[in-house]
UniProtKB/TrEMBL annotation, chains A, C:
Coiled coil: none
Presence of the UniProt keyword Nuclease in the record: no
Matches recorded under PANTHER family: ACYL-COA DEHYDROGENASE, ACYL-COA DEHYDROGENASE FADE29
Domain Acyl-CoA oxidase/dehydrogenase middle: 125-219
Superkingdom assignment: Bacteria
A GO cellular component annotation in the UniProt record: plasma membrane
Taxonomic path: Bacteria, Pseudomonadati, Pseudomonadota, Alphaproteobacteria, Rhodobacterales
Domain Acyl-CoA dehydrogenase/oxidase C-terminal: 231-387
Annotated protein name in UniProt: Acyl-CoA dehydrogenase
From TrEMBL, chains B, D:
Swiss-Prot/TrEMBL keywords: FAD, Flavoprotein, Oxidoreductase, Plasmid
Ranges of residues in domain Acyl-CoA dehydrogenase/oxidase C-terminal: 185-303
Lineage summary: Bacteria, Pseudomonadati, Pseudomonadota, Alphaproteobacteria, Rhodobacterales
UniProt GO molecular function: acyl-CoA dehydrogenase activity; flavin adenine dinucleotide binding
PANTHER family registered for this protein in UniProt: ACYL-COA DEHYDROGENASE (PTHR43884), ACYL-COA DEHYDROGENASE FADE28 (PTHR43884:SF20)
Pfam families: Acyl-CoA_dh_1, Acyl-CoA_dh_N
Annotated ranges, domain Acyl-CoA dehydrogenase/oxidase N-terminal: 19-88
Protein name: Acyl-CoA dehydrogenase
Length: 391, 317, 391, 317
């Protein structure tokens, strides 16, 4: 299976790449390059730039008001995007809430939410995981009880990335007890300013606070914020997980970081260290394989529509490679990576050895990628059952 | 653009090779390969080939590897025909009328063999060997004696260090591209072998019961099979990419060939080891259908060189 | 936990080592060093030498007629033994049939079988595995039906090492169908010359034929060959598996092979190859850890008696290390290991590059060690249940 | 025979350190360590120590590592007291009245720091650093400024390349043995940390339920826990062997210290990664009891050097 890339596709990608490189602010690029934490303004400011050219909701069809790229163009765009040290845009609105609202919501919901998402006017977060339901979403217990024209939500979500910045949350909540745990789950849009919502940040190993706990105490959500059919939310949630998986290879980003590591190693005179070089080359070859697998899956899905469970392979290998790279980078800098300067990581002070300093925090922070988005264990369960047919 | 087969043509080719390979198991496959035009099929029509290109060569090698035939298509169908293209001997080789082996130092692209004996590989019955002499020239030398066998039944020779024989004009220049195509074919061969091993193992995990349940219902088995399936896909992805890049005369082609081989060795080694372990005692035996493929992968790693050697050649390419 | 080694222990070990080195025939040592297959005469001839000094049944107590070594002396002896390229003695009589007969048999059985085993007059094999019961012994189906003063055995054993050389087999057979599969299994001693027994060799990947299938067709075994109680065989079998596990680390043998690989590498001028050296040193350190774990377990069991399920760790790591070493050796010789000369491996012709030639066959042959003796998967099941308490 | 504690004495020592360590979590532990005589406890009585030897030092380090205290016993309790033994400053250090850091190049036993700034490690509040100068002499130099923090809260300095300060007579000669003992203690520290991580993870696997059953009932989890338990035992085995060999003045002692450290890094890296992964999201957080130990192991690998560096030093020892 090979992908057909036309001259027009190439021209589009080249132009988009040049545009991105020209627009990315130097200070933002340096923050990303040095693993300095981003502020909400860093992120939304850059998304503003993207949205101005309709490059923010990059995967959206023309019907949704997006750029209407073909899968090939989308792939080429992501490759160009990954090659520059730009922040990974917040996906919760554009890749998750938006597509579900478009696919399963009503016209009023589409008109109300989609333009704001596309144009970066609302910041979204994802209310899936709960303390008792991480990778096992079917056992979630946050409840939404119907009272007149409202749902009253009680319970707790956890690992909610950027909930402290968010205007809206899309959440899976339990509206009924079904015979199977997957039944009775509904998909609700919740305004984060509603009374009764408490957001508590959770610091991760590296000192950052991108995750949160979100507590709901008698939170009243209008029934018009229910997406699709009550009790059918599990299906919408699964729709998203498959979507997410495909975009989680992170190949383009890993390709950029590989190049940065090679640059750093060259500057340190380490390119004659055969042990280091062999580690680097092994990862490079694994990344080549990942890129080719991604292309093959894209070619296969070009005709057939959405990617199948095979995309779990990309998530598994993509996250493993990202971790291997961050470990190589840590080992390359060695003791130089040991100073931990909160002021530097918060972007409040220049680092004295800025290139090296973020390596430790980045390695610790990246432990998350094999856990979130459906842990790699869950991906292997999906593959063994749905692709290999073992049960 | 060099010769590049259409996808549909490649599928037709693969199916016809697969049919042949299934029938040729346990026999000397070279006469049949020659008859079907599969020796030197990647050459241009002007050189007597079928314009199958590197992708066609890969399709041929994959099916031969899958069946575990007593042939090394990377050498017999690709490297030797490419290096002898346009010579009378080359014509004979493609017709199945002559058999030529290849030296290990040529596969390494290393002229120096330091006056030591070296190994040669190729079809049983070969009487000459393509080698690099001390000056780096490509030379056709007589083989000193009858072949010995490797553990998978394929032929090997130990050749004394002579700089005798005929120099092949232009051979050294043709070598880098020919070696990249041979390596791409070797990677394809390995993907064929490991694909068959994977399928056999998956089928066995479905059917074999232990402790009262199918082995495939144990979660550790499931996860290991998933990892094998990923390793297989990685090898296929890079093998395919290398062949396409060669046909497209992509400047990265030689690098991709080394990458494909590194991945083939990595994935193939894992799949071979796990195929034996997951089959249990049966997998240790000659009688298992897995045995020839496990040996083939193990032998080819040493014939074409292991991971570390090719990591270096990847960087140098 | 540390082991107390007395001066007398050290003196014993030194003397035993010197004796072994002096007695080992040079041609036999060369065969072992070059991975040439051994004949029955090679093996029994060497066992004869050992038995003459009561070093064959090395683990036997004085009561059993053995040398009566302490656990420490036994360990030191095995270390000396592993350091020379001597064949691994056949264990089926001395380590398996003998101890079971001693522990669970009657006086007549002890008198009849033990001296022959100790003095290397009978060659034993083990009838455990069956085509439907490899690692899952409880599901074995070879039957022994009582007819007067005989059991009549029908069925099939497989993976029977050296059955084609054996005088006797000890076998687990089903004498009744129990409620649980472990019930109704009995421990029977079977004379391999009994009519109705067919031995069919199984060639392994490397071309050797040490394994066999053994078919039983109405084979009449006198009831006096039943060991212990009818139906209690499962317990005796488990007794042996634990015994086996402890001796399966193979650390002393791996230590010798590590030294041989270093010698070979030095002769090939490879000691400046950092990639090779690092692989070698990693294995050496893993082996050091294995040796120390073995010592710790020995010290712990010195007081308490027989080794516990912790010994599964030694089996797992010992076999992994043995395989890693044989792989390193194969990669060291590379193409030189590719000539496969049956005449050489059978000891019928000198190899032209003898040191290298056996490396491929040895690697393929050693795949068995993670499968037999309770596969490493079964060892992990034992550890997780019995040591970690996970179920 | 050098100082060697009896097994029963070692157990008493370990218990008393464990008691102290549990109480000292989150505080500056050095005053307490000094009060209990745990700084320089491995020194002879003549030198003001408790004759605890390398095994005693290992017992101390294990318990400090298990609790994840804000101390690096390999440096504060072992290396600095050994190098300063018999000096006034050494007496002050053991009494908790002075604090001395150690440079990275001293840990590497590499005099050359090529005129570049180097790192130093030790207790918060240290004002001097033991380092190797360009000529290989052991030198006590002033620390340039206040400490900065590492991610686990312990102190680090970046020191400009000066050959200032006092040369410690005989220090360079004492260095190899002192470094071996420090490495042995670092390995013991790591086994304490990884042992605690392993126990926490095992407990979590027993109690945490997912998909309707305890995580520990999934076979993949069981096998992973088994592999962690083996990795832990391997690290413990070599750490213990190194300390015993040091006390027995075994000529293999320095080698064993490097081996113990290689194993500690290998096992510790695996256990730290798996502790995070198996705990899932919780394992990623600061709030998890695993967090300080994961960081400690990750930091110490860079402080004392990774596997590859010590494979070479093992061979050279």
């Amino acid at each position: 299976m090979t992908l057909t890339i036309t001259e027009a596709d190439r021209a589009f990608a080249a132009e988009a790449g040049a545009w991105l490189r020209a627009r990315l602010p130097a200070d933002l690029a340096q923050k990303v390059r040095q693993n300095i934490r981003l502020t909400r303004d860093d992120l939304t400011g850059w998304q503003e730039v993207l949205a101005a050219r309709n490059f923010y909701a990059i995967g959206w069809s023309r019907e949704m008001g997006g750029p209407g790229l073909t899968p090939v163009q989308r792939y080429l765009f992501e490759r160009e995007y990954g090659a520059i040290p730009a922040p990974h845009p917040c996906q919760f609105g554009i890749s998750m809430a938006g597509p579900v609202i478009h696919a399963f919501g009503n016209d009023a919901q589409r008109a109300r939410f989609l333009p704001d998402i596309r144009e970066n006017r609302t910041f979204w977060c994802q209310g899936y995981s709960e303390p008792g339901a991480g990778s096992d979403l079917a056992s979630l217990s946050t409840s939404a009880r119907r009272e007149g024209d409202h749902y009253v939500v009680n319970g707790q979500k956890i690992w909610t990335t950027w909930a402290h910045w968010a205007d809206w949350m899309f959440a899976l909540v339990r509206t009924a007890k079904g015979a199977r745990p997957q039944e009775g789950i509904s998909f609700l849009l919740i305004d984060m300013k509603t009374p009764g919502i408490t957001v508590r940040p959770i610091k991760t190993l590296d000192g950052e606070a991108e995750f949160n706990e979100v507590f709901f105490d008698e939170v009243r959500v209008p029934v018009e914020n229910l997406v699709g059919t009550e009790g059918a939310g599990w299906g919408y949630g699964k729709f998203l997980l498959e979507y997410e998986r495909f975009s989680m290879s992170g190949a383009a980003r890993s390709r950029r970081i590989l190049g940065e590591i090679r640059e750093d190693a060259a500057a340190m005179g380490r390119l004659d260290d055969i042990t280091f070089l062999n580690r680097l080359t092994r990862i490079e070859i694994a990344l080549l394989a990942l890129e080719e697998m991604e292309l093959a899956l894209l070619a296969a899905s070009e005709a057939g529509g959405k990617p199948g469970p095979e995309a779990s392979r990309l998530k598994i290998r993509g996250t493993e490679i990202a971790q291997d790279l961050s470990r190589l980078r840590l080992d390359l800098f060695g003791r130089r990576a040991l100073v931990h300067d909160e002021a530097f990581l918060e972007g409040e002070a220049p680092g004295e050895d800025a290139q090296a300093q973020g390596a430790m925090a980045a390695w610790l922070n990246l432990r998350k990628v094999t856990i979130w988005g459906g842990s790699n264990e869950v991906q292997r369960m999906i593959l063994s059952k749905q692709v290999l047919g073992l049960r | 653009m060099a010769a590049m087969m259409e996808k549909s043509d490649l599928e037709v080719l693969a199916r016809s090779v697969a049919r042949f390979a299934d029938e040729a198991k346990g026999t000397d496959p070279l006469p049949g390969l020659a008859e079907l035009g599969l020796i030197g099929a990647g050459l241009s029509e002007a050189q007597g080939g079928a314009e199958a290109g590197a992708q066609g060569e890969a399709a041929i090698a994959t099916e031969i590897g899958r069946a575990g035939l007593q042939a090394t298509p990377a050498l017999e169908c690709v490297l030797v025909p490419l290096l002898l293209a346009g010579t009378d001997l080359g014509t004979q080789v493609s017709a199945g009328a002559a058999r030529v082996a290849v030296s290990g130092n040529l596969l390494d692209a290393r002229p120096d063999h330091a006056g030591l004996p070296f190994t040669a590989f190729g079809p049983e019955g070969a009487t000459q060997v393509l080698m690099l002499d001390g000056s780096g020239a490509l030379r056709l030398a007589p083989l000193p004696g009858p072949a010995r066998q490797m553990i998978d039944g394929r032929a090997i020779w130990t050749v004394p260090p002579v700089d005798a024989g005929t120099v092949i004009a232009g051979g050294a220049e043709a070598l880098p591209l020919a070696l990249a195509r041979a390596l791409s074919a070797a990677a394809a061969d390995a993907t064929g072998a490991m694909g068959a091993l994977y399928e056999m193992t998956l089928a066995y995990m479905r059917e074999r019961r232990q402790f009262g349940q199918a082995l495939g219902s144990f979660q550790t088995i499931q996860f290991r099979m998933v990892d094998l399936s990923i390793a297989l896909e990685e090898a296929r992805a890079l093998s395919g990419a290398a062949a396409r890049a060669l046909d497209a005369q992509d400047p990265r082609a030689a690098q991709l060939a080394h990458a494909a081989w590194v991945q083939a060795v990595t994935s193939g080694g894992l799949i071979a080891r796990e195929a034996v372990q997951l089959h249990g005692g049966i997998g240790m035996t000659e009688e298992s259908a897995t045995a020839p493929l496990v040996k083939r992968l193990t032998v080819d790693e040493q014939v074409f060189g292991g991971v570390e050697a090719h990591l270096g050649r990847y960087r140098a390419a």
